[in-house]
Design a protein that fits this description.
- The longest helix has 25 residues.
- The protein is of the alpha/beta class and 427 residues long.
- It has 2 domains: 182 residues, 3-Layer(aba) Sandwich (D-Maltodextrin-Binding Protein, domain 2), CATH 3.40.190.10; 206 residues, D-Maltodextrin-Binding Protein, domain 2 (3-Layer(aba) Sandwich), CATH 3.40.190.10.
- It has 16 helices and 13 strands.
- The strands form 4 sheets. Strands 3, 4, 5, 6 and 12 form a 5-stranded antiparallel sheet that branches. A 4-stranded mixed sheet has the order 8-9-7-10. Strands 1-2 form a two-stranded parallel ribbon.
- InterPro entries: SBP.
- Pfam families: SBP_bac_8.
- Belongs to the bacterial solute-binding protein 1 family.
- This is Extracellular solute-binding protein.
């Protein structure tokens, strides 16, 4: 009888220890991760690997990934936020992040900023002085062409240190048009709608000296979107279409995708995501050139998709641990090798077959480091971006430049007022 009682005591103690072990970490706590890349098997393979490696690297957390099509991702997040069903970890497009932080979808990201000091500026998402998101890559645009195209037309090949000036760029377009070899000397890509417009074209506005909104306060677009510099930009922008230098809003999407390779265009304004295809098509003849200096230095857009922690998660530290884990050079290099994305650090770039020193796409890393400008870091950007898109499309179609920009500035100002300044801290 004494032996039986002792066995029962030992069994009860063992069960209690097992239960305590589950509480103390033997069982991993689930973390949900939403990602925008459904339908991209190459990208999915890398994300899946990061998740598996993280789950196997420790015993506290277990990340479960759910992917969405990019076209419906933002709407899914907004719907989940309204229903109180946000995941623990969110994927967020860089320029959208301030809106989600302001709206209460995200909380500050608990990562030692000294550990990410060397990351490209466009990969770090700040709002009101706090880090909210971090990216595993950046994106950059360039003037893509062939060396033979420029040398045959006796056009100087620009460099980062000496980009084309406004007059030089205009002259190059006219020279290429006069050759009669191309449907258009330049392809700006107006077949692409939505975020492409502010990302790709607002740097031209900024290079003229204008902007979407006054960044000193983020309280008005007056004077920056409709001032003298902005009007000069608008007149130049309209001239590109009136002179037949680039296709307008009716551009065929197929021409956008293949027009440069097919010889319809001499130069294409496009991103590093297409660079691998251009290398395959043109080999050593391909050139990735900086934006022209339109008066106030060469500028391109910055910031792509980034990871953040939802405001409602009870597991903020676990979510931050996953994001920090994902920023290892080996994963960032994997994205650059597989898809052509820009590694956020020099060390990740150094081990990339496409971005290491002397590699054909290394130019994009320097473009991002030296020329990239964030889109306005404000919750109101999501509205201002759509206003700018419509204004640029209308001007391209022949609308009066000054009136169109005045109306755009008024629309942005009204939105800022309706939203009580979007919570900006004004010193």
């Amino acid at each position: 009888m004494k032996t039986i009682i002792m066995k029962n005591v030992l069994m009860t103690a063992s069960a209690s220890l097992l239960s305590l072990g589950a509480i103390n970490g033997y069982a991993q706590t689930n973390l949900s991760l939403w990602y925008h890349g459904a339908g991209n098997p190459v990208e999915a393979k890398i994300i899946d690997q990061i998740v598996d490696d993280f789950n196997n690297s420790q015993s506290d957390w277990k990340v479960a990934l759910q992917s969405f099509p990019q076209e419906s991702y933002n709407d899914s997040v907004i719907a989940a936020a309204l229903a109180g069903n946000l995941p623990d970890i969110l994927d967020v497009d860089g320029p959208v992040m301030p809106n989600w932080a302001w709206a209460g979808y995200l909380q500050p990201l608990n990562i030692d900023e000294a550990a990410i000091a060397d990351f490209l500026p466009g990969t770090k998402g700040y709002w009101n002085g706090k880090l909210y998101s971090l990216g595993l890559w950046d994106a950059a645009v360039a003037m893509i062409t062939r060396k033979s195209t420029l040398t045959d037309a006796n056009i100087r090949i620009p460099t980062l240190d000496q980009p084309w000036s406004l007059d030089e760029f205009n002259a190059a377009l006219e020279t290429l048009k006069q050759t009669g070899k191309y449907d258009y000397p330049l392809d700006l890509g107006l077949a692409w709608k939505g975020e492409w417009f502010p990302y790709a074209f607002s740097p031209f506005l900024q290079s003229f000296g204008g902007d979407i909104v006054d960044r000193s306060t983020y309280q008005s677009a007056e004077g920056v979107l409709n001032g003298d510099a902005a009007i000069a930009f608008g007149e130049w922008w309209q001239m590109l279409f009136q002179e037949g230098y680039t296709p307008c809003n009716s551009q065929d999407t197929a021409d956008r995708e293949t027009g440069l390779v097919d010889g319809k265009y001499a130069i294409q304004w496009n991103g590093n995501w297409t660079a691998l295809n251009m290398l395959k098509a043109f080999g050593d003849d391909v050139l990735f050139l900086p934006a022209p200096d339109l008066g106030q230095d060469s500028k391109i857009g910055a910031a792509s998709w980034q990871f953040g922690v939802s405001a409602t998660t009870p597991h903020a530290q676990g979510a931050a641990d996953f994001i920090k884990f994902a920023t290892q050079d080996r994963y960032m290099t994997a994205f650059s090798d597989a898809i052509g994305l820009i590694p956020p650090t020099k060390t990740a770039a150094a081990t990339s077959q496409h971005y290491r020193q002397g590699a054909p796409m290394a130019t994009f890393f320097e473009l991002s480091a030296q020329q990239a400008v964030l889109r306005p870091v404000t919750p109101g950007y999501v509205v201002a971006a759509k206003v700018l898109e419509k204004a640029l499309a209308d001007i391209a179609d022949g609308a009066d430049v000054a009136d169109t920009l005045d109306n755009a500035a008024d629309e942005i100002n009204n939105d800022i007022r309706r939203n009580l300044g979007y919570g900006h801290s004004i010193n």
